[in-house]
Design goal:
heterodimer, A: about 350 residues, mainly alpha, two-stranded antiparallel sheet, 4 strands, about 5% strand, B: about 450 residues, about 70% helix
Chain lengths: ~350, ~450
């Protein structure tokens, strides 16, 4: 039952990053590459029409996590206190940037909200990557050592950074050189994804230029991926054991690899949807590989006294998980139906659509 | 520790207060939008359709604000109230996850369709999407109140040795005797807010002598919805809730009503008075004897326990705040019924559109339904103190053990600053929409 919920929540999270990922990415592209007013407008629109129906997947994932693994939810949310609250503020800035831009016509107003949307998208992508980096690296989960208790039970509190800036320190902070690498991977991945989305949904004048950008971004992504793999094992020595024991899990890294290789052929692709599918593979592969490398651990412990948090020692009761499975099944079907209906009705290029309610 | 709980509570109170400004309007307004759209389908008079679309614009602004201020609340359970989340997540996680999955999704998916899809799908489907938005927003209220009802009156649980609450009976969460009255009371109160807003915008158009045709439609609809809902809020739903409090949280009831000492021969109802916590009595009291006993138990001389009957640590920790919240809510509710009765009478005599003073009153009363709704919410929450889960888990036991008060204070200040900005932008946007008026968007 715990495994079922682990998979279910992972699926919802992956869907969230596929969907909201493209509007984060659109924000990053908007920040760096949008030049003309027309481009800025259509790019904002390509995110603005969809962000709120995408963000509901985050709320769903949060709710499911709270219900199924309350101990994990409580430890992680209070442990990553500061970055999570900052993420909340960024989400707010991004949303109001998107919603407000079109409300008044004067340039300064638009500039402010353009920057707000672009910067907060960039920082959110970075923070989500850093969060993933923290989860695969593990944290100092407290416990009693030499008669001194670090924290109470499995509660911890991570500072934003530690003076050594190293993932190998005894008490690593949220931001260190390893988590920054993962953060950058997330930024580049989502930027590629967002660029593909813009090409897919708009007739923006920079679309052909964006294909060049994607090609370059893909090169840097490949480099970053190689670097991260090289250091991953030293940061968390158990990282690749799962793949050795259960070789079928290798399918997940292969998905990532397929996306990465495919995107080198971006200029030759016949249809825009194909490129978008490839960047979707990047996201699916990246997240699932990280989670598969940990399973059944959900938060490794970097100290030796406290056992890691797993899906078993953080879950709710068997009965609760079972009833929830029944309603979640119906709920999930409904979600997918809504999403399809909605995306269907808003299919095609969106340049002509009226935006700015 | 004291500091920490204070800042945590203040932060939650602040963020939820700000958040609740928005859903209380959208829940009621979605009903009125469906009404306008339905009338348009029946009589094909264009202005009803314009009204539906105009209020959907206001709805959309409120909805966005509600989403961005609602996500922090879900997070804060984990960030600031980690112990509470760990202990009760297996139960209230159910209702909160259902809220996200069933209602929030419904609302946001179909809101986009309602706004952008009228030309794509024809009028009947457009009404249907409006109805689904309404359904989503009310279902949202249902699940949130199911969560709150469990905290007020826990049911269907078992407590393990490690203090964790485990779900025993899923259906009990929704057949909780606290839930239905609280839900109905809350939803009707949100209809009060939205009808006052609609009426107020109508009064504004009439007084300004622009868009008067819409002004009259809004005013009429707002007044009729306002009369019906403000009466239903008081009776039967308000009464039903008060009886529930008396039954399940007698200490809170005594504090709400301001009864310091038990009167053997029946309790009086307090109309006015200020709790004096030093001498444990009400200052400047105006009260009517025996009414409270009658209202609560339908017996004039039935005894109602006063605060002297409970141990200090069982009593709510801020009795004046609870007492005032409750009395402000009730007082405002009474004023609303009075004003709406008067307005309906004038409407019937065909004098409402020219009664300038009443129009001014309706225009400026708008903040008060918001205040009534918020004080109502405070009454419920302050009444539950000193517990997070009534009778079982104290508020002091629910905070995050690893987060320091300095961090909580820092984030609280951040939220205050950010929400001030949001509030300002919200007012600018709504002001702009009202100023443009419904006619603006028909072309």
């Amino acid at each position: 039952m715990e495994t079922f919920w682990f998979i279910a929540i992972s699926i919802v999270l992956v869907i969230f990053f596929i969907l909201d990922g493209y509007d984060f990415g659109a924000g990053i592209i908007h920040l760096f590459f949008a030049k003309t007013e027309k481009d800025k407008e259509v790019i904002t629109k390509s995110a603005g029409l969809f962000w709120d129906s995408n963000e509901v997947w985050l709320v769903a994932a949060g709710g499911m996590l709270f219900m199924a693994f309350p101990t994990f939810y409580a430890s992680v949310f209070s442990g990553f206190y500061l970055p999570l609250i900052i993420v909340l503020w960024l989400i707010i800035f991004r949303a109001i940037g998107l919603e407000l831009r079109g409300q008044f016509k004067f340039q300064m107003w638009k500039d402010i909200w353009d920057k707000s949307f672009g910067l907060s998208s960039l920082l959110l992508a970075l923070f989500f990557g850093i969060a993933l980096g923290n989860i695969v690296r593990g944290v100092n989960l407290g416990g009693v050592e030499n008669g001194e208790s670090a924290y109470e039970g499995h509660y911890f509190f991570l500072p934003l950074w530690d003076s050594s800036f190293s993932p190998l320190s005894k008490t690593p902070g949220i931001i260190d050189w390893f988590t920054i690498i993962i953060g950058l991977i997330a930024v580049v991945t989502l930027a590629i994804h967002g660029a593909n989305w813009i090409i897919l949904k708009t007739n923006s004048s920079i679309n052909s230029y964006l294909k060049n950008i994607i090609f370059k971004l893909n090169i840097s992504l490949a480099v970053l991926t190689i670097i991260s793999l090289a250091v991953w094992n030293s940061v968390n020595p158990n990282s690749f054991n799962n793949f050795g024991h259960k070789p079928y899990l290798l399918i997940f890294p292969c998905i990532y690899l397929a996306g990465l290789i495919g995107l080198f052929f971006i200029k030759k692709l016949k249809k825009d949807i194909h490129a978008f599918t490839l960047s979707t593979l990047l996201i699916v592969g990246g997240i699932t590989s990280s989670l598969a490398s940990l399973f059944p651990v959900v938060l490794p412990s970097v100290n030796t006294i406290h056992e890691p948090l797993t899906i078993y020692n953080t879950s709710a009761s068997e009965y609760g998980l079972t009833v929830a499975m029944n309603w979640a099944f119906i709920g999930f079907i409904l979600l997918v139906v809504y999403a399809i209906v909605q995306k269907r009705l808003m299919a095609g290029k969106i340049d002509h659509m009226d935006y700015g309610h | 520790m004291e500091d920490m709980i204070f800042y945590d509570r203040l932060q939650f109170a602040f963020t939820i207060t700000f958040h609740y400004i928005f859903p209380q309007l959208t829940m009621g307004l979605s009903l009125m939008i469906v009404y306008f759209k339905y009338r348009y389908l029946r009589n094909k008079i264009e202005k009803y359709n314009d009204a539906a679309k105009f209020f959907m614009k206001i709805f959309a602004i409120n909805f966005t604000m509600g989403v961005v201020t609602g996500i922090p609340l879900e997070f804060q359970f984990g960030t600031n109230w980690a112990k509470f989340s760990e202990l009760t997540g297996g139960i209230i996680g159910q209702t909160l996850a259902m809220e996200g999955m069933f209602s929030f999704f419904l609302e946001s998916s179909f809101l986009a369709l309602f706004i952008f899809g009228e030309k794509l799908m024809g009028q009947k489907l457009h009404l249907l999407t409006g109805f689904l938005v309404f359904l989503g927003s009310w279902a949202s209220g249902w699940f949130i109140l199911a969560t709150n009802a469990w905290m007020q009156h826990p049911v269907g649980y078992e407590i393990l040795d490690n203090g964790k609450f485990v779900l025993q009976n899923f259906s009990a969460l929704f057949s909780n005797p606290w839930l239905l009255p609280a839900f109905l009371h809350n939803q009707l109160a949100s209809v009060v807010t939205s009808s006052f807003v609609v009426a107020s915008i109508g009064a504004f158009y009439i007084l300004r002598n622009k868009q008067t045709e819409y002004g009259q439609l809004f005013l009429k609809t707002g007044v009729i919805f306002g009369l019906v809902s403000s009466i239903l809020v008081a009776f039967p739903t308000g009464d039903w809730n008060a009886k529930n409090v008396a039954k399940y949280q007698p200490a809170a009831f005594a504090a709400m009503e301001g009864i310091f000492e038990t009167e053997e021969a029946g309790a009086e109802i307090i109309l006015i008075g200020q709790p004096n916590m030093v001498e444990k009595k009400l200052d400047n009291k105006i009260a009517v004897p025996n009414i409270l006993s009658f209202l609560t138990h339908q017996e004039w001389d039935r005894q109602i326990p006063g605060m002297d009957q409970f141990k200090q640590e069982e009593l709510p920790d801020n009795i004046p705040a609870l007492y005032y919240s409750y009395h402000i809510m009730v007082g405002l509710g009474t004023i609303f019924i009075g004003l709406m009765l008067l307005a309906t009478f004038l409407l019937w005599r065909k004098k409402l559109y020219t009664s300038t003073s009443i129009l001014w009153a309706i225009m400026f009363i708008v903040p008060f339904p918001y205040i009534a709704n918020l004080t109502g919410w405070y009454t419920a929450e302050l009444g539950r103190q000193p517990y997070l889960v009534y009778g079982l888990l104290r508020t002091t036991e629910g905070v995050s053990p690893s987060v320091s008060s300095g961090n909580t204070l820092f984030t609280l200040l951040g939220f205050v600053a950010l929400y001030m900005l949001l509030g300002l932008l919200f007012l600018v946007l709504v002001g702009k929409t009202i100023n443009e008026g419904p006619k603006h968007q028909t072309h």
